[in-house]
Amino acid sequence: MSDDHSSGGPQPSPTPQPGELFTLAPVGPTEGTDLEIDLAVDHPDWTEITDLEALVHRSIAAALTGAGLGDAAGTIAVCLSDDARVRDVNRAWRGQDKPTNVLSFPSDDPRLPRLTGAPPPHIGDLILAFETTDREARRDGKSLVAHLTHLLVHGTLHLVGFDHEVDAEAEVMEGLERHVLASLGIADPYHEDAVLEAAQ
Question: Which of 72, 81, 168, 180 is most exposed, with minimal Cβ within 10 Å?
């Protein structure tokens, strides 16, 4: 997984504030929860995915459920963008002048109790690059939907504290990703057979 997130690598600037990376359009709460996902789509090729908004909601909700946070109240901002914009964000906030598949910027901890009458916390922001995501999917012999689902799950887990900087953490995170993706009908992206098939 070649994703990046705010807790790793050089950080020339502080973590951005909610909405600072991109303009958002609220799309409402995920069904049956107090989770709201603010979705911005600023690369037209993303819209070729059938039921894109539902896929984003379903992937993020499944990741939170798998992490034991299925009842989390809060907002997650998702920007489905392109290589150029992700490269700009990666350079500005992480000092890395290159695009990547997904960037995660954690914010408030959704496990904290919500004060009565207070607005739900902002859990964090995700921004994804279409060209990199599409290129990786083709390289690995996956559908774009399957790879996007994996990246949304992976990025959401970063927002709630999971990481893969050391082997022990990576094993836990990858195991959780497998479990969540299986619940969504997506094949194990780390299975040796899948890796070997993609390399041939």
Answer: 168
> Distance between CA atoms of 60 and 152, rounded to whole angstroms?
6
Query: What φ, ψ does residue 141 adopt, rounded to 5°?
Result: 70, 30
Q: Evaluate if residue 182 carries a pLDDT over 70.
A: yes
d(CA 197, CA 165): 26
Q: What is the pTM of this model?
A: 0.80
CATH code: domain of residue 102: 3.40.390.30
In a domain, 16, yes or no: no
**Number of domains present in the structure of the chain:** 1
Q: What is the pLDDT of residues 111-123, one digit of tens each?
A: 544 555 566 688 9
Residue 71 lies in a domain: yes
What does DSSP assign to residue 68?
A: T
Report how far residue 58's alpha carbon sits from residue 181's, in angstroms, rounded to the nearest whole number: 11
To the nearest 10°, report the CA torsion of 178, 179, 185, 191.
Answer: 30
Q: How far apart are CA 33 and CA 110, in angstroms?
A: 13
Residue range(s) defining the domain that contains residue 29 = 24-199
Integer distance in angstroms from the first to the last C-alpha of the chain? Answer: 19
